[in-house]
Each structure stands twice: as C-alpha cells, then as structure tokens.
Fold this sequence. Notes:
There is one protein chain. Residues 1-22, 24-29, 439-461 and 538-564 have low confidence and may be disordered. By secondary structure, this protein is mainly β. Helix 2 (8-22) packs antiparallel against helix 4. It has 6 domains: 2-104, membrane protein fhac (Ubiquitin-like (UB roll)); 110-180, Ubiquitin-like (UB roll) (Roll); 185-268, membrane protein fhac (Ubiquitin-like (UB roll)); 270-344, membrane protein fhac (Ubiquitin-like (UB roll)), CATH 3.10.20; 348-403, no CATH class; 425-771, Porin (Beta Barrel), CATH 2.40.160. It has a 19-stranded mixed beta sheet that branches. The protein has a 3-stranded mixed beta sheet with strand order 1-3-2. A 3-stranded mixed beta sheet has the order 4-6-5, with helices on one face.
Amino acid sequence: MIERLRRTSRLVLAVLAFLALVMPPAQSATSAPTVVAVSVTGNAHIPTDRILAVITTKVGDPFDPAKVQADLRAIADLGFFADQAPPIIKQRPDGVAVTYRVIENPVVTSIRFAGNKSVSADTLLALMDTAPGQVFNIKTYQQDVLKINSYYDKVGFGGQLPSHVTDVNIGADGVLTLTIQEGLTVKNIIITPPPDADPVLPPTLITAALVTKPGSPYSESQRDKDYDALKTLYEKYDLKIGDVEAGVDPATIDQKAGTADVRYTIQVLRVGAVEITGNTYTHDDVIRRELRLRPGMLVTDSGLRRDYDRLNNLGFFEKIDFQAKPGPDPKRQGLVTINWQVKEQRTGTATVGAGYSGGLTGTGLTGTLSYQQNNINGTGNGGSVRLERGSRVSDAQLSVTIPYVGKTEKSQRYSLGATVFTQQQTNFYPVYLGCVGSGGAQGGIGAPTTTPGFGATPSASIAPCPATGALPVALIPPDANNPNLVSGIVSTYKSRSTGLSTTIGRRLTDVYKVSAGVNLQTVAASADVPSGYFFRGDNNVLSTNCPLGTSVSLLGSSTNCGNSLSSAYGITAPSIAQINSNQNYKLRSFVFGVGADSRDDVFNPRRGVNASISDEISGKGIGSDFNYSLVTLDGAKFFPVLKNATLGVHGLVGASTGAIPTNKLFIFSDQELRGYADPAYGTEKLLGQVELRIPLTQDRKFSIVTFAETGATRIRGGVSNNGTQTFDLNKYTFRGDVGVGLRFDVPQLGLHTLRLDFAKGSQGTHTSFGIGQSF
C-alpha cells in the first residue's frame, strides 16, 4: 500500500514525456495555445472545487507544461489520491482543454492495529486524525505515524526503532490496518559482572526478580518496573542499590528480527568513608571502635541500626544521627560517606547525700559521698569511688573498668574490671517463735506472754513454750503455716567483708562474650537476739547453759547456744557453711561466665536477648575456707508489641553445691519480688517475670509498666525442728505478685530509668524504688 501511495511522485516524469508527444513543435511564448477549459475526473468523494483550488493552470492562461507539472504535484500533495493518470490535453479551435485524472483512496470504514501490547488500540486511535468515514489521506496518515512514534517514545520505547508503525494496508472494503512494533524484543538479559559492576547477588537471582523477560518488548517503563523489583529484591537481602544502568545493548540490535539483548549494570551501596562530627570530649577512636560499617563494606539497614545502637549504649551522647552522602569518589556511584553526628552529654556524676531510715529494720542516719565517671578523659574507660557511713553502715568502694584494652584490633577484644571494697553493715531481722503458749523471761526483760498463735491450745506441730526462762526463736519460721512472728523483737545481724575482685572479658563476637574473674575476700558475720530469747543450739538441743536475762549471741562461744548461722536460721542444712561468730574467714573463688547481649538499647530495650550463665567456684585447694559452687542462669528476651510498647520476659535459675557461706545465699528482695518487704533466702532460687512497658513520650523517657512475677527459694537438705516436729525446707516455697509502675529518666543527673513500683502479693501491698530496669 505504501508503494502505491508513492506513485504520484513518479508521475511527473511520465507527464513530461506525454506532453512532448502531444504538443506541436516548439514555438515562441506569444504563440502558446490558450487554455480554454480545466476539469477534473475520477473523484467520487473529494469535491472538484477543492482540487481545482490547488491547480494553477487557469482558463485564459497560455498553456504551460511546467504549470501542469506543478498542478500534478499539488493534487498529489492533497493526499487523497492513490494514483493519477496522465492529464488529457485536447485541441480546441480556440486553444486547448486540460483534464486532470485522479484515482481516489478508499473511504476508511474502520481502523485496526496489529502488534500493540503495551498501548491499547483506543489510545492509538485517539492519537490519529484519520477516522472512519473519511477518504484515506496519505498526508494525514503520515502525521498520524509521527504522533504514534512520539507517543511510544514518551512511554519509554524511544531510540529502538526507526518507526513503530512498520506497515499499513487499506483494503477495498476500507479497513485500515496499521502494523505496530512497540519496541525491540528482548533476546537475552545480561547482568554485568565485576569489576565493571557490583551486583553482589547472583545473576540467576536477579533475572528471576526482573519484570523484563526474554521474548517481551523492552521499554523505559519496563525498566522502571525492573528498578522497583530490584530494589525490593535487594531490600529482602538487607542491601541498598546505589546505581542501576539498564537498556538495550546497541551491539546486539537485530533490526530485521526486531530483537536485542538488554544489559543491567548494578552497583550496590558500599561505605566509601566514615566521618564523625559533634564530639569535642570523646575521642574519635572511642566512637570508631564501636562502628561496624567501615570503608569497603556493604551498607545495610541492619548495619546502620546496629551501629546506632552501639553508640547509644555507650551512654555518652544525648543525641545520635547519621547521614549518607555521595562520595568520596564522585565517579563511583556505589560509594557513600556515612557521617555520624553526635551530641555529647554529661558522663560524670558526683553525689553528696544523707538519709535516715528509722524503725527496728532501718539503717539509721547515713551519709554518702560518691563520684562516677563513665568516660574518663574521653577514653571510654570508667571509674567510681563510693563512701558511705552511718550508725549501722560503713562502706568504701573503688572500681575501674576498661572496656577495650590496648589499641590494636586483637587487644581490643579484651576488657578488664577491678573493684576494691570494704563493707560493714548491721541489719535487723524479725524473728519467729519456736513454741506456743505463754512464758516469761528472767531478769524482767519483756518476753511477750502472747504472740500470734498464742492463747490457744498448743498445736500438735509446735512445742509449748516453757513456763519460765528464755524463749527459742529463729530467723526462718519453723512452720510456714504457723509463722508466729514475734512482735517488736528483732535479731541483730552484723557482717563485714574486705577484698578485691577482678574480671577479664573476651569478646567472641559483638553479641557473645566470655569472662573469668577472681574474688579475694575476708568475711565475718555474727547475729544475736535480746535477752529473754535464744537461738536453738547445735543439733536442735535446747540450751541449759545460755545465760538468761542477758543478750545471747547466736554465734557465740557457747556450743549449746549455737555456734553457726545455721542456728540463727533455726535450721540444720549441709548446704550452709558453719560460720562462727566474730571469726574471720578467707573466701577465695574463681568466677567463669558466658554471656550474650543483642539488646538494641541496654537502658531501655525494645528487642533483643540478654542472657548469661556463670559459675563461681570456691575450694580449699585455692586457699579458701569454703568448698562450694554457685551456678546462675539468667536470661531475658524483649519483643516489640502493639505500636511502640515492649514485652519483656525474664527467667533466673540459681543452684549450688557444697556448703556456701551465708553471705552467698540467694536472696529475694523487693527489687525482684516487688510485692514483699521481707527478704527470702535459699541455696537455690527460681524467678520468672513478665513486664509490659508502654512509653508515654516519643523519646521513651517516661513510661508506665504492668508486671507479674513469681519466685521461690529452697534450702538444699535443710530441716527445722521446733522440739516436737521436723519441717522439710528442701522444697521450693513459691510466692508471686502483680503490679504497676512508673519509669522515668533524669538525663540532667546522668540517671537512666528510675523505677517506682506498686505491687500486691499474698501478704498485702508494697512499694519499691530502684535505679535501672528490673531486668
């Protein structure tokens, strides 16, 4: 069809030849015949006037073959005619008559498209001026082709083909069919390998993710879809795309077959350089040693988040931010410079304070002087000194921590810590009566005549109190179901220890760490009760030699009055070492530990695990007066829940072997079981806690919590006897509580997470206060 539409341009030469045959020999311009008539034949739908309007040969003009030739071109330029026959030139008496003969194109009855897949027929039809009901016009059609090509270029198929309309045909029935080739068909997909690219992922994985497949047409829109697909793929593997170049490989274009290879050149983001700004006190190397994304490494979201968490966990900075910017080599699009921006905060805390706690179990008036610095001279090393003195307390402690030893990568896998301390403390504990009934104390010291459980017929499980003389008591109730707490009477427990502890740690990874330590201590302890009361002697023998009316030492010199802390507890247990009153003991032990810490924030974790297992071993072979082993398994896991809350689950198991000194007993205080004021002791310990932490501010510095917990202790092999019945203390005794609490930070004082908890246990309610998260 295209060939037929181009015949008109060749008609001019034929007309010239025809005119040479029909015209008489050349004559002067003044003797040229006059045109007496101009007409058109062959047109059925195009008005004659429209054709005549472009014809320059007019009636009355001298006949000019050049004008006829121009007229033929002008008629052809109208575009409505598939062909023209040579014009008829007839001699008339008074001149010549010129008849132009045309062959009209068919009337378009419908327009169809073949080969279009990405662009709909309706869209293509809307681009065209040619429409059904019109005589097909080659000029209009040519403009339509230009519009179609322009549209395909606009939607991403540009630069691949000379024209996207490869053929046109109009049948005798007026059906116009345009054959479309939208773009080159993809023959092969090529992933540029290193060193010309850095795709990291294998080519098979990349091509499987692409929208473009062999056999499909290629376009810019297809390329954009591929970019989105590649971005999703690389994010799945925690990678970031730096640059993607994709397009037809010119060297592979086969115009005849309409195919070509498509090449993808992918550069993932890598660290080109690391910058640190904002630190004026903390040394650059202290910050850099925490960063794991270093030049040449792949940039990942998890890596950036991990480095942020590691800097935040130092506690040196009020604010941390980072920015990725191009460079340092602008020619390498896959390299970026990561700029860490920090704002430092106070890392040293000095405290001068005084306090008073009255009552039988109070500590009296105390004064405290302390100083703690977590970033000495910007080196990241820490130290603290603490002095406390009061009527019942005397403590002194000096600690040093070096989280990274040396300057080399190998040496910085190690950490050191050491503490020198001396402690003396007096505590008062309630006591429990080991008998029922009424009794008196010699010397007029007011032993009560009634206590809880008194005034009734003595139970079969508890011996009656003597009518006169001292009353037997213990720090642990002989019968848990009938505690018989003595009102207004307490035992005085005194302890002192002086020593040194050191620890060396070894990082296996950023999460796992092993440690080993040495404890060198001198310990002593004693306990007594007011006169009128006494602790049972060894082997549960009631003393006949204990002086009445005077203070009786539970660890005193009288064997019958009891010479060990077992007597004070009112129990017999091979798991508790015998400690005589006012005698110094050497405590030497090794401590080995393995820990894992993947918390995102050590002060206020949102996710991660913090778990450890430790074993403290003491034996006579290392110069200790004690033979024991203490094993503790402690683990917590944190889950992000709801919108920004955290669910924490904590479990602890403590176990021992051998005979442990009383200052090594596991203890439950109101920091662990927050619904109870009185502590619980044991040679074994179980604890389970669940806590939901809900922040009330965006910076998570103020939050509320709800919690539930349960715990139990037991004394391995322990029994107690009230004179008539023996009680088994080898079984775990559980108690639990539920409660709510508040958490808030005081950054001005360098304090993270102050705790105030309100809990309800089986014995009532209790309020506790602490520093740091409960776990």
